[in-house]
Design brief:
7-stranded mixed β-sheet; 6 helices; 39% helix; 22% strand; binds 5-O-phosphono-beta-D-ribofuranosylamine
Amino acid sequence: MSKVRLGVLISGRGSNMKAIVEACKNKSIPAEVKIVISNKKNALGLELAESYGIETKYINSKDYPSKEAYEAAITSVLDVHNVELTCLAGYMKVLGPKFIQKHQGKLINIHPSLLPAFKGLDAQKQAFEYGVKIAGCSVHFVDETVDGGTIIMQDIVHVTDTDTLDSMTNNILKKEHILYPKAINWVIENHIKRGTK
Ligand code: GRF
């Protein structure tokens, strides 16, 4: 099977993007990251992607007259690269219905909580302050509800009495880096697998 073409959308440091790129490179997933798109010019993840020789694109929403036009520009870039699966990895903007409908089933996200608990921003802080003893992360299909699409995979971390918000967040992040490639594999296997090319 030829490699599945991935696009990754980021807004920040890109550690999940890196985990995906590394998993592609060491062949734990039969895929290749073709394009990394950021809505933030100075996202560290852009430099990181470039250091791997991956094409990157900064798309500024302010350059477009509407959210729909901005997201159409993202779709165009994904299309130019024939992206088959788009992975949100710390992409901090809520996507509009048109974009989501167009990419439905081929658009996934990672969220640092055990969904459906603690949706939205600062999920780790929400969980920590709630006092959970088991935290975790989820990879899910993106639908029109924020962090609400069908869950693909989850993993847990135990929160002990000595944990701080930082240590718990780090423990979750380590799990994210393992979970995201695994979940991508599952999606490729179950939704995208094609004949030998
Ligand atoms: C991760 O915690 C991810 O779950 C959330 O945003 C963070 C992105 O981190 N959606 P990074 O940019 O992948 O390092």
